[in-house]
Amino acid sequence: MRDEPSRRDVRETYDRIGGHFSRTREHPWPAVERFIERADRVGTGLDLGCGNARHAEVMAGRAERVVGVDLSRSVLDAARERRREHGFAVELCQADATALPLATRSVGLAVYIAAVHHLPTRDARLASLDELARVLTPDGRALVSAWSTTHDRFDREEGFDTTVDWTLPGGETVARYYHIYDPAEFAADLERSRLDVERTFEERGNCYGVVAGRAEGKPT
Amino acid sequence: MKESLMEIIRCPMDKQELELEPIQESDDEVLEGRLVCTECGEEYPIEEGIPNLLPPDMRDDPPA
């Protein structure tokens, strides 16, 4: 594996592991369920980095229309399968989080869970947060999460880049890129983006931020 | 994809509106087709009901 993976490499990784990966991601995360269940009903909900759409499924009860966006086609095929099996409505779309194909101020509720940490540069991670800010309505809110240094498997205080192997059923391993955030760094990146940060917290080894779209007057 | 998605999807590059060119439809779903940016003319495929709105340099096929 090259030292500097590109976003294209990330897409290719998930195209390879997508089907197996999605079958191991059955349940929505409690912090995400709480966030969605407490949200006001909205027109459009967005699950950014939707994977198998397990969080889009929760959101289907809170939004008239839910859009699930992912970089990988094989992951989206798994999401379509889950949509069919579980019988919920989600519109699926293949796209890059740093170049969202959505209208400005069109999304009332969004989740961006366990995905931003796969973007291989800080510039790309910030660009994706700016894109999230752009598409949120003025009163729109989002929950963002990333893997945290506080997780049991890590032994470091400061954020770092790493790869974590994914083992396919045949025993073949595929390296996945992660930037593991320390909580202060995660909060700082959210603050540096065009998002308004309502609060940040840590839960089960993940950093979370509750954020809102760009407030009037905040520089663009 | 449902045609109503056209209300909110845009060209990922310049965020301008897209024009839908359906090739195969069933009920209210577009199964195969193209989305064409009304500003820059970039074309994005819809395959088996899922639009591919990756920027051109992120796609598998090299730009024509």
Give an overview of the whole structure.
The complex is a heterodimer of chains A (220) and B (64). Chain A has 220 residues and is α/β, with parallel strands linked by helices. Chain A has a single domain (7-213), classed as Vaccinia Virus protein VP39 (Rossmann fold). Chain A is 31% helix and 31% strand. Chain A is built from six helices and nine strands. Chain A has helices spanning 7-23, 30-37, 54-59, 73-86, 122-135, 183-192; strands at 42-48, 63-70, 91-94, 107-112, 136-147, 160-167, 173-180, 196-203, 206-212. In chain A, the strands form two sheets. Chain A has a seven-stranded mixed sheet with strand order 3-2-1-4-5-9-8, with helices on both faces. In chain A, strands 6-7 form a two-stranded antiparallel sheet. In chain A, helix 1 packs parallel to helix 4 (73-86). Chain A is globular, with a radius of gyration of 16 Å. Chain A starts with 6 loop residues before the first helix and ends in an 8-residue tail after the last strand. The model of chain B has no long low-confidence stretch (mean pLDDT 93). Chain B has one domain (3-48). In chain B, strands 1-2-3-4 form a four-stranded antiparallel sheet, with no helix packed on it.
What fraction strand of chain B?
A: 35-45%
Structural class of chain B: mainly beta
Architecture of chain A, according to CATH?
3-Layer(aba) Sandwich
Give the helix/strand class of chain A: alpha/beta
Main features:
heterodimer, A: 220 residues, alpha/beta, Rossmann fold, seven-stranded mixed sheet, 6 helices, 9 strands, globular, B: 64 residues, mainly beta, four-stranded antiparallel sheet, 0% helix
Give the helices and strands, then pairings:
The complex is a heterodimer of chains A (220) and B (64).
Chain A: H1 7-23, H2 30-37, E1 42-48, H3 54-59, E2 63-70, H4 73-86, E3 91-94, E4 107-112, H5 122-135, E5 136-147, E6 160-167, E7 173-180, H6 183-192, E8 196-203, E9 206-212
Chain B: E1 18-26, E2 29-37, E3 43-47, E4 50-51
Antiparallel strand pairs in B: 1-2, 2-3, 3-4
